[in-house]
């Protein structure tokens, strides 16, 4: 389980994100949603101790009862907690996919043949052939690259996975594959935090959705509320965002 209480991010003393509180249990998917530029990727970085220079995290972050400092997050990153980043450029263009799985397995503390076995197991969980290991990033479609990033992040079987904008630039079929991958990881007991601008995707894959706004943060709401015209969504800002999605006719509330 991972729990955040009043998590805030400041840059050079200026507040960027504040009032973020949530709990994610094993086997649960919670989506953190909001418009572009609201600070979602900063939250992803803060949750794994990777904030850029000049940025500081405050508030409480607890993983399975243990309070997490940035130093502690760095020590367990890739093992107990992991990040699947948004940029496809996070894949090394000069290395084959197999090498990148083995590097991730080494960071997760695996040794020798266990590294290769972990990479093969991660590919198998995604339904990808072992021959994928011989490919380079430029051989991959956008959808395949996203799934490989997800596989690399989970090669060490982390307890908590943060996934940043997993549907960015993908077509409908690829989005469906990614959604299936996330549900499969949750069914295996992983706690997932999915950071996304896509409320429709979030409503289909998550158990609960928390919506960020320029004025703060709405506590996680049942994903089942995000349906039809959103009348059951308790937060007004979240309701407006839901109604403004293309799937809902891009309705702008007065």
From TrEMBL:
It is a peripheral membrane protein. One of its GO terms (cellular component) is plasma membrane. It comes from the Bacteria. Its main location: membrane. Keywords: ATP-binding, Cell inner membrane, Cell membrane, Membrane, Nucleotide-binding, Translocase, Transport. Residues 2-239 form the ABC transporter domain. This is ABC transporter. Transmembrane segments: none annotated. Belongs to the ABC transporter superfamily. It is found in: Cell inner membrane. One of its GO terms (molecular function) is ATP binding. It comes from Aureimonas altamirensis. InterPro entries: AAA+_ATPase (IPR003593), ABC_Ni/Peptide_Import (IPR050388), ABC_transporter-like_ATP-bd (IPR003439), ABC_transporter-like_CS (IPR017871), P-loop_NTPase (IPR027417).
